[in-house]
């Protein structure tokens, strides 16, 4: 597999230095990408970058993931309009561990010569004094060279509307030099000749290649992928609630699956090439079938399935599919009963929720009382309204039709404490019995 060709047809390739293609063709090449440990999980914006490493390994080369234990203490100014808060060593260490466990899901660490590897730049920076860094590294790169980088110029020259009026601290200004030294260190000590990343990292990466040339007379290469953006041009990877994380504790598998399922046709057709390893012929076939019946959302479903299984598991994917069907009136009591509590709560996150004490629940005279008085009128404002709708067959509890307004309250609670009430076709309520 030719890496450049593969990235090009997938729409992932933005730019690469002259000679990169020849280097990749000449020998197994070790290449790396840096990951910033400012959170304990990576998100799907990072996942696009991880896929660059995945394709590098599939093409027979050696992928190295650098977790920035040192650079994470500073903050990369690329694409930022303000300096961010700095994290403590303990928080960074916890974040590094979380990120490493996620990277291990995508890269093969036991496949011979091109086995993946994870390194941490804190290991070579922790004993590197400030004065030594200035003497050994800083003297090789001029201020003029550093000032020419877009990431620096955008922060120093405030926009007309003042969005970037905060300027740039020396800490962030020095970031490109520190990242450049990472590349030099890995080149010198591990033989790495390639650094990759998103397109907004081009300036930082080429500082590394320049440092290698000036400090060692060596030749190294840069390759950057396209920055994945939404149709409106904003960075991809965020939902209305914030980042879409790879950690199930931060973004549930159900919400993760739903994110992909809700993409537009245009986004799904583009991103199925970026986020899956499906071959070109299969993707083209799915895209053509999608055009014939767009309402079936075949592109979105194929993308959501592939990514959810790889990030989480097939079990989580199946549970997410079952959960998705619930709000469309599909699935029975057993389907509801099989949902884990976190998924159940995710599914019904936006519906009215209410609590009923265990004593009130146990003493409820009938289902009518439960759905009117005991829920504070949130399901039905009056017993009369409840009786009429039950009589017309419009009320279900835990997917089971309520047959009689005077039926006793003897439902099996989901997860030992929940009832899902459906009124009509689209109105749902979640009752928690505590």
Automatic annotation (TrEMBL):
Listed GO CC annotations: cytosol
Localization in the cell: Cytoplasm
Keyword annotations: Aminoacyl-tRNA synthetase, ATP-binding, Cytoplasm, Ligase, Nucleotide-binding, Protein biosynthesis, RNA-binding
Catalytic activity: tRNA(Tyr) + L-tyrosine + ATP = L-tyrosyl-tRNA(Tyr) + AMP + diphosphate + H(+)
InterPro entries associated with the record: aa-tRNA-synth_I_CS, aa-tRNA-synth_Ic, Rossmann-like_a/b/a_fold, S4_RNA-bd_sf, SYY-like_C, Tyr-tRNA-ligase, Tyr-tRNA-ligase_bac-type, Tyr-tRNA-ligase_bac_1
SUPFAM superfamilies: Alpha-L RNA-binding motif (SSF55174), Nucleotidylyl transferase (SSF52374)
GO annotation terms (biological process): tyrosyl-tRNA aminoacylation
Protein name, entry field: Tyrosine--tRNA ligase
Organism expressing this protein natively: Pontibacter oryzae
Gene encoding the protein: tyrS
């Amino acid at each position: 597999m030719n890496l450049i060709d593969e990235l090009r047809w997938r729409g992932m390739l933005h730019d690469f230095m002259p000679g990169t293609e020849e280097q990749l063709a000449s020998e197994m090449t070790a290449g790396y990408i840096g990951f910033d440990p400012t959170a304990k999980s990576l998100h799907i914006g990072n996942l696009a970058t991880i896929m660059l490493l995945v394709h590098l390994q599939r093409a027979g080369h050696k992928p190295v993931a650098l977790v920035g234990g040192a650079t994470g203490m500073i903050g990369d100014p690329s694409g930022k309009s303000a300096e961010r808060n700095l994290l403590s060593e303990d928080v960074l260490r916890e974040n590094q561990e979380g990120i490493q466990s996620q990277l291990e899901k995508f890269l093969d660490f036991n496949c011979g010569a091109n086995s993946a590897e994870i390194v941490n730049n804190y290991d070579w920076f922790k004993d590197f004094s400030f004065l030594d860094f200035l003497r050994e590294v800083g003297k090789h790169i001029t201020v003029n060279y550093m000032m020419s980088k877009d990431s620096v110029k955008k922060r120093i020259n405030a926009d007309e509307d003042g969005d970037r009026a905060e300027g740039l601290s020396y800490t962030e200004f020095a970031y490109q030099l520190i990242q450049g030294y990472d590349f030099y260190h890995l080149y010198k000590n591990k033989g790495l000749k390639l650094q990759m990343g998103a397109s907004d990292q081009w300036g930082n990466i080429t500082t590394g290649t320049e440092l290698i040339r000036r400090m060692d007379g060596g030749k190294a290469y840069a390759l950057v992928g396209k920055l994945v953006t939404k149709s409106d041009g904003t960075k991809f990877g965020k939902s209305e609630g914030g980042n879409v994380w790879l950690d199930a504790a931060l973004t549930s598998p159900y919400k993760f699956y739903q994110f992909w399922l809700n993409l537009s046709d245009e986004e799904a057709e583009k991103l199925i090439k970026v986020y899956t390893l499906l071959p070109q012929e299969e993707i083209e076939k799915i895209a053509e079938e999608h055009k014939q019946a767009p309402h079936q959302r075949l592109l979105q479903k194929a993308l959501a399935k592939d990514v959810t299984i790889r990030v989480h598991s097939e079990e989580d994917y199946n549970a997410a599919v079952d959960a998705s069907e619930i709000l469309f009136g599909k699935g029975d009591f057993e389907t509801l009963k099989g949902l884990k509590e976190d998924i159940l709560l995710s599914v019904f996150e936006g519906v009215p929720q209410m609590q009923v004490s265990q004593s009130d629940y146990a003493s409820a005279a009938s289902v009518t009382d439960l759905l009117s008085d005991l829920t504070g009128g949130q399901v039905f404002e009056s017993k009369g309204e409840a009786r009429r709708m039950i009589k017309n067959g419009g009320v279900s509890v835990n997917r089971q039709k309520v047959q009689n307004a005077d039926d006793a309250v003897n439902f099996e609670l989901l997860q030992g404490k929940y009832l899902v009430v459906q009124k009509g076709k689209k109105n749902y309520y979640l009752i928690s019995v505590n």
